[in-house]
Design brief:
heterodimer, A: alpha+beta, Alpha-Beta Plaits, 2 domains, five-stranded antiparallel sheet, 4 helices, 42% strand, B: alpha/beta, Rossmann fold, 3 domains, six-stranded parallel sheet, 19 strands, 15% strand
Chain lengths: 171, 577
């Protein structure tokens, strides 16, 4: 079954490592939905968070191929784990007018979104939360008229785990 | 110490005494140091592709890391095919390329190409060194990565200013620190125990072994296991030589041009013990049809190979040598039984064969077979890619690992001659025989000069059918005999649609290989009739120095048996009524 998987790849902070990881997925023909790479508290360590749409058998292969890279320290597919906090950030521009602005702002308040810019004919909002929350928010504001939005892609962190650097096998 | 001196010092510390390559602008600093480094033998080829294949042939035949050194831009890109070849066949190489000044990177400077970008997907790992302080550590890591775990090529790109910069307090590191790279060697004892008891329960066990046996040096362990268990064994192209051709358990090579015995055994076995193999599509055919009756145990040092192509019921991640020796300790002896008898029956009933008539054309199979009578039993044999390669895999009497070299995974035409030169460089005391085709030889024919000028006594056997024979065979069998662009005699007077030999075929082959050989100071010999074959082989092998022996063979001979692409292993074309 093809499913969305979020995979955290802990790598050494070496030049070109993001290209290595994203290149690998492309080269082996896997579908990547988003990829975020960012530094961590340890300057030698870099984290890459991937979202891929693939079947379980392919996910197993992706995890193995990622592990095989010399720079990879650890790979965890967190899709079926509940001890991870997953967040996404979105900025969106909506059409509004005098009549429906109040309705939209109510919704905004309910979701803890913030209005960054309010104009006569449009509004720019920001929101962070788990991806489901963002999807739901988009669904609800869609009738107002979405002009454009940018999503950050997913990023994630383990809740209680101590980081176990050097353990390649995940959890 | 300058970056260029560090490179040479590091090579010496890694035990490198042989480097293959070709100079150019930005890499002159290293060549300048080489000029006064007699401990390192540098082999100047005539093309960078020749250099990287030569380094590969050296690595495969000696087990050491092959080193190739080239300049930036075209020098670097010319190594790409060779790097991909080494990667597919897990051959340990370190490729050192020059690069433009770090300030010029990204400006499309003269002879600039993005070597790390180009090699990322065909290397085991690669580096661009932008700071001379990183250089010692990088070279240490590169050699470590190339030779350990599943071996493979590692590329190091070195900007010219890094080579010219001095590093104070240079020391070459003793160890590496690679938190993400720890090859699993021993394998899970519990899994090996499970495998031992699976062998005991199995009625029809079969070993399927490959290049992993050669690279881990596990040939002796495999032979011990065969002695103890008598399990029939099929060996892939990359593993040929790890079991002697005449071993009673040996059923031949499996797959598309495998023996019928090997393919039948794969289809009927109930336990398949795969060791150091990757279930290549040329071996398995359609995955869902492969070894359907069998529980599959897969032993490999590369965890990503397990389950990649074929599900494994019993995965063991570890080095073939360790796992096989442990398995051999644990497994109960097994006696020759009805399954062995059945395998032996197949071997006897479906032998590889050809019928050489006295006055007809020379058959290519006969040339390979006849070579067995005159070749040194300890010779290293290197093939190119195509029909002659498959005939060699079928008829050559291989006896030892690292004595049969061939481009398996990538199927690189042009591999043969330069790889043979590399093997000759690494094995000065051994006879080195390159078996090649008229197509493949011409892809790196410039290396005849390299062989001659360095006095490498490489014996080159050219199987000349004036066709790109393997493609022609496919066109004959599956494309309605439309011989599109496969005839190397084809000229402007030929009919637009040629479907094979006819009385108007041009008489002469261009080039005249004997003359090409002679022009390169390589002795040239030619055989045109069956009675000439053995005398020419004898003469060629006895002659000192490099020799090219050309055999004008029957043009439309096919490699049989054959399993059509996309068909299961049971669907075999034998060529018989």
């Amino acid at each position: 079954m093809v499913e969305k998987h979020t995979i955290i790849v802990t790598v050494t902070n070496s030049p070109g490592v993001l290209a290595r990881i994203s290149g690998l997925l492309f080269q082996r023909g896997y579908n990547m939905e988003s990829v975020i790479g960012a530094p961590t508290e340890n300057p030698d360590i870099y984290k890459i968070i991937l979202v891929v749409q693939e079947s379980d058998i392919h996910i197993e292969q992706i995890v193995k191929q990622l592990n095989k890279l010399i720079d990879t320290i650890r790979v965890v597919d967190i899709s079926h784990k509940d001890n991870y906090i997953v967040r996404e950030y979105i900025i969106l521009k909506l059409e509004v007018d005098q009549k429906n602005r109040t309705d939209l702002l109510k919704l905004t308040e309910h979701f803890n979104a913030h209005a960054i810019d309010i104009a006569m004919d449009h509004i720019i909002l920001e929101l962070s939360g788990n991806p489901q929350k963002i999807d739901r928010f988009l669904e609800l504001v869609n009738p107002f008229g979405i002009i454009e939005y940018v999503r950050s892609g997913e990023f994630a962190m383990a809740e209680y785990q101590k980081s176990k650097i050097g353990d390649k096998n995940g959890d | 110490m300058k970056g260029s001196e560090i490179v040479i010092d590091a090579l010496k510390k890694e035990g490198v005494d042989t480097v293959f390559g070709y100079p150019g602008g930005v890499i002159i600093p290293i060549f300048d140091v080489l000029f006064s480094t007699p401990e390192i033998h540098f082999l100047l080829t005539r093309h960078e592709q020749g250099a990287v294949h030569a380094a590969d042939g050296y690595a495969r035949s000696t087990g050491k890391v092959g080193v190739c050194m080239v300049t930036s831009g075209p020098g670097a890109t010319n190594t790409i095919t060779g790097i991909a070849t080494a990667r597919m066949d897990s051959s340990p190489l370190v490729i050192i390329s020059g690069q433009v000044h770090t300030n010029s990177i990204g400006t499309d400077a003269f002879q600039e190409t993005d070597m790390v970008g180009l090699t990322r997907s065909i290397c085991k790992h690669n580096y661009l060194v932008k700071d001379v302080a990183e250089l010692p550590k990088t070279i240490k890591e590169a050699f470590f990565i190339a030779r350990t775990g599943r071996p493979g090529p590692v590329s190091i790109d070195l900007p010219v200013n890094v080579l010219n910069t001095r590093l104070k307090n240079y020391t070459y590191p003793e160890t590496v620190n690679l938190p993400g790279y720890k090859p699993e060697i021993k394998g899970s004892l519990m899994q090996i125990e499970k495998l031992a008891s699976a062998v005991e329960r199995s009625q029809k066990p079969l070993l399927y072994t490959g290049g992993g046996i050669v690279s881990s040096g596990a040939s002796e362990n495999l032979l011990e296991l065969l002695d103890k268990t008598r399990i029939p064994v099929v060996v892939t192209l990359m593993g040929l030589g790890s079991v002697p051709f005449n071993h009673p358990c040996f059923l031949g090579m499996p797959g598309m041009h495998g023996t019928i015995a090997a393919n039948k055994a794969l289809s009927e076995c109930d336990l398949l013990i795969a060791v150091g193999v990757r279930f290549d599509d040329r071996v398995t055919g359609p995955r869902h049809t492969f070894a359907q009756q069998a529980t599959i145990a897969h032993i490999d040092i590369d965890a990503a190979e397990i389950g990649k192509n074929i599900r494994a019921d019993l995965p063991i991640v570890g080095d073939a040598k360790f796992v096989l020796s442990e398995l051999c300790n644990l497994v109960k002896p097994r006696l020759r039984d009805t399954w062995n008898e059945r395998a032996e029956y197949w071997k006897e009933k479906y032998p590889l064969k050809y019928e050489q008539s006295e006055h007809g054309d020379i058959l290519p199979q006969y040339v390979i077979d006849a070579l067995n009578q005159v070749i040194d039993p300890d010779a290293v044999v290197i093939t190119d890619v195509g029909q002659h390669q498959m005939w060699t895999s079928m008829f050559h009497h291989y006896r030892h690992p690292r004595h049969f070299l061939s481009s398996g995974g990538l199927g690189t035409m042009g591999f043969g001659l330069p790889a043979a030169i590399g093997a000759a460089m690494g094995n000065p005391d051994k006879q080195v025989v390159c078996i090649t085709g008229d197509g493949g030889l011409q892809m790196n024919i410039q290396e005849l000069a390299t062989a001659a000028i360095n006095r490498f006594p490489v014996k080159i056997i050219v199987i000349n059918n004036a066709y790109l024979g393997m493609v022609r065979q496919w066109q004959e069998l599956f494309w309605d005999k439309k011989y599109s662009q496969v005839c190397l005699k084809r000229g402007p007077d030929c009919p637009p649609e040629c479907r094979g030999l006819n009385e108007n075929c041009p008489p002469d082959y261009i080039p005249d290989f004997v003359k090409v050989a002679e022009a390169n100071s390589v002795k040239g010999l030619r055989a045109s009739k069956p009675a000439d074959v053995i005398p020419i082989l004898k003469k060629g092998l006895e002659e000192p120095g490099p020799v090219l022996m050309e055999f004008m063979v029957s043009r439309e001979e096919n490699v049989l048996p054959m399993v059509s692409a996309g068909k299961p292993l049971t669907d075999i074309i034998t060529g018989e009524e």
